[in-house]
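## retry 2 of 3
previous attempt timed out at serialization; input unchanged, resubmitting
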Amino acid sequence: MHSLPIILVLLLGSAGLIYLACEFFVNGVEWVGRKLAVGQKATGTVLAAFGTALPESVVTFVAVTFPHTAADKDIGVGAAMGGPLVLATIAYAVVGVALWLCRSRLPSGEEGRDLYAGLSRDQAWFIAISILKLGVGVVAFALKPWLGVLFLAAYGAYAWKEMGGEQQIDDDELEPLKLTPGARVPTARAAILQTVAALVVIFLACRLFVGQLDALSPYLGLKPQLLSLLISPIATELPETLNAVIWIRQGKVRLALANISGAMMIQATVPTAFGLFSTPWLLDPALIVAGAITLLSVGVLFFGFWRGWITRTYLTLMALFYVAFAVLVACFRL
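## retry succeeded, writing output
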């Protein structure tokens, strides 16, 4: 086991590498979206969200399908439940804080109404899927694995709707592609290459980051199970959160909000499908609490977007739901 100073250096170094890779990723995926002639919302909800959630989904798939230990399947199921909770609480709270720090405001007027109507529909999809996801986790029946196909179909329908809907193409000038800074308009091949390469780096850096968190748990006096429930999901959702921060810094609030919303849809469906295919999908009390608080927080988001109540403070306060989850989980584990 590494010493504490080495663990801290690797932890901070991997976090910095993730942020740097996210800079390349958001730059590349915007150009990919431009090449595909899709608007900012579809770029955020489908292209960017799918890219950053893909490594996590693969990790879940490997954990539940090819487990090395008896605990691996439990870890995979925990990731499928913990990821959406972090996105609905911590990620949106970080967006609120970033908006305050960058002195940026949320869209208003017709632009705001269009954006919030789309995001409220996303939350409604998520609520319906999460109710089913939580419900099947408390009962046992023979046909449960077949429901995994339903979850994959749900995400396919969502992505088809987002990509096939009316697109509001952004006419703003994009920053030059970092891979070819001298070209005013890069080739599609260069944009895809940069995006995929950035994803590979994000995936490897995230694995290093999570590994250092695991190594840190003895020094913090935390049980590994408690660490995996409370901290590891924050680490695995770091790319989506950092993407949002970068886009807010660039004044692209629509992309930031759409990226988190789309990532929530992926995390609610694809990892769940893998879990249903390969595990009994029976949730312990802590995971049931996670699912219930996720539903509650997304319900609050739904009404906020639907009624136009969303403000920077409203988003920042979403972190309170995660604090409530941490307190309840600690009570279960102590």
